[in-house]
Amino acid sequence: MSKEPVAVVGIGQTKHVAARRDVSIAGLVREAARRALDDAELTWVDVDAVVIGKAPDFFEGVMMPELYLADALGAVGKPMLRVHTAGSVGGSTALVAANLVAARVHGTVLTLAFEKQSESNAMWGLSLPVPFQQPLLAGAGGFFAPHVRAYMRRSGAPDTVGSLVAYKDRRNALKNPYAHLHEHDITLEKVRASPMLWDPIRYSETCPSSDGACAMVLTDRAGAARAPRPPAWMLGGAMRSEPTLFAGKDAVSPQAGKDCAADVYRQAGIGDPRRDIDAVEMYVPFSWYEPMWLENLGFADEGEGWKLTEAGVTELDGDLPVNMSGGVLSTNPIGASGMIRFAEAALQVRGQAGEHQVERARRVLGHAYGGGSQFFSMWLVGARPPES
Amino acid sequence: MTGEETPGARDIAVVAFAQTDVLRTTDELSEVEMLMPVLHSVLDRTGLKTADIGFTCSGSSDYLAGRAFSFTLALDGVGAWPPISESHVEMDGAWALYEAWTKLLTGDADTALVYSYGKSSPGSLRDVLTRQLDPYYVAPLWPDSVALAALQAQALIDAGQADESALAAVGARSRRVATLNSHAQLRGTVPQGDYAVRPLRTGDCPPVGDGAAAVILAAGERARDLCSRPAWIRGIDHRIEAHSLGVRDLTDSPSTRLAAEKAGAFERPVDTAELHAPFSAQEIVLRKALRLDDSVRVNLSGGALAANPMMAAGLIRLGEAAARIHRGESDRALGHATSGPCLQQNLVAVLEGDAR
């Protein structure tokens, strides 16, 4: 059976910062939603349904916040779904919204993801002891550092690669007015001299804690025809999950990530991702995940990802730009981070990424992951509608 | 929207349903351990294995588990290896079923496993649910779920639409019919009890309990292969209302009515309805919104007044409605789920069996 093509016709973000003390949670999400609607030149009445995502409710201390946010997002009298798939949630939320359009259940859907990390403490939210499990009381960095070590050992990558990624992403962020970290005096030496947090991950190679929201308006073919600006078309989208911990798990390059990418490429008719995809917004919360995901997503052979990074291929003016927006390393409202990747991919193919626009970005991948590298969501968007 | 209105849309059915006994405490079980038998049971009913399932979706709440990302370990119970196509809603499992239904409609999958679970016993549920409220203006006052439901019940009494004996009759009937439901937590003659919060007595309130449920959905011919009498989803829709109780008419449920209309519930009468009404007064509100008269068999399972496992109780309503169709006890059934204080958000599904 045929699916309705899905178009992104509106994108809105807040200026991401450490603490938005000037707005409530409702004020924050409304700001992003309003901007997405303005971009699409639509109003609240044009929206048929709202799909909202965020990471754990403990981050703000509000249980099932969609209930409280229904009014702020113009959802009263409409369907409202709340997605939660850990760090991949921003991407998954967009895909659930896209499915409503693809299935022809709704014509136009507002999707939004947010995190207002200043309302609590993410380190605390992620570190509650669980009976009968090994304690992971050092936040996400403590969990992922051993996997980075394993990658370095397996690939033979020199220990300088992580700082190259951080230096690149923080410079890219300077071109993105919505990015949280704008480190105008950033140098490679400063990244390398920053304190070691979870060896081998240094302070400047980690993501910040941000307050922020991201919203998109997704619509069908008819809605795209009415859109005032060029739409981004979804060419493929998928989610994959695997268990957190088990003997056969490859924490460096999880099978779920490979399978997810393969499904997206199949849908989009991508034969060789390195050749057929123009740029990537990938979920890199710790710098070493750029070379790791380059391999997991099929842009490099196993053990070769770091060579692309080292050769400058992933720079903004490189052959395969990665995280043109500055990425998660520069902006991390956790629940929104995946959707920002998806939205930035769409901005690129719409030609609306401003100073961080990549020339001739026709097909761009948005990527998100979460949990203990167990949840993956990705979409590939293009400047032209799908052929079938 | 209704499946019938969309040209070329696929027919999708509930083909299997399983649930746990709902218990006041399950200290000896983790969530995964509570869930595992239900997953096995629902798969056994169809002969499917995890690897045969096209899409998996679950519903749960971190606040019941008392920690972040609590659903990630439940996935271990599913056995997500090789990796599976999977998603999760931080809502009642009825909404996970809705997400799975849309996934099947796209044609990306032919079968879906939907599950949900909740353990209310580790904490004080009345306190926990206050955290659902507006975090700046209402939650700091800690108005609890029973107190809010009591406002709704009093509004209904003030409007002349019920009195305390009418409320008591709802609770008594629910627990009487629940004697036939081995999974129910409160069964038989239960005293109406003292006031919990006026005008609600303990008999007007749901038991606090732990439980899990799962269903399998399948599309088209696949459904007929897996189930001798599939419960076809003729329509399913959900709507949300304003959060603030001050701007809502608590004696009515316009979101239920709208969802029912969009799901096609009013096109033909239903013979059976499973309503997610945790408080006695809410059943009266829902019956009115759904235009259910005495000819409709309502909550033969005993409903939420007999067992109300958070995050699973709504999915159980849909599952109970489907199971009656599977068994040939219903031809057209309505399943309803609710979320939020005083029926803020409501989902309605219309299920039908093949003509006999």
Largest sheet of chain A: 9 strands, mixed
Distance between the termini of chain A: 11 Å
How many helical stretches of chain B? 11
One letter per element, helices H and strands E, the order of chain B comes to EHEHHEHEHHHEEEHEHEHEHEE
The major sheet of chain B is characterized as:
10 strands, mixed
Mean pLDDT of chain A: 95
Beta-strand residue fraction of chain A: 15-25%
Helix content of chain A: 25-40%
Order of helices and strands of chain A: EHEHEHEHHHHEEEHEHHEHHHHEE
Number of strands of chain B: 12
Give the arrangement of secondary structure elements.
The complex is a heterodimer of chains A (388) and B (356).
Chain A: E1 7-13, H1 25-40, E2 49-53, H2 66-69, E3 80-83, H3 89-102, E4 108-116, H4 122-125, H5 139-155, H6 161-173, H7 188-193, E5 196-198, E6 201-202, E7 211-219, H8 221-226, E8 232-241, H9 255-268, H10 273-276, E9 279-281, H11 289-296, H12 305-310, H13 327-330, H14 334-350, E10 363-370, E11 375-382
Parallel strand pairs in A: 2-3, 2-4, 9-10
Antiparallel strand pairs in A: 1-7, 1-8, 4-7, 5-6, 8-11, 10-11
Helix pairs in contact in A: 3-14
Chain B: E1 12-19, H1 31-46, E2 55-59, H2 62-65, H3 71-78, E3 86-89, H4 93-105, E4 111-119, H5 125-130, H6 145-158, H7 164-177, E5 195-197, E6 200-201, E7 210-219, H8 220-226, E8 231-240, H9 254-262, E9 272-274, H10 280-289, E10 297-298, H11 313-326, E11 332-339, E12 345-352
Parallel strand pairs in B: 2-3, 2-4, 9-10, 9-11
Antiparallel strand pairs in B: 1-7, 1-8, 4-7, 5-6, 8-12, 11-12
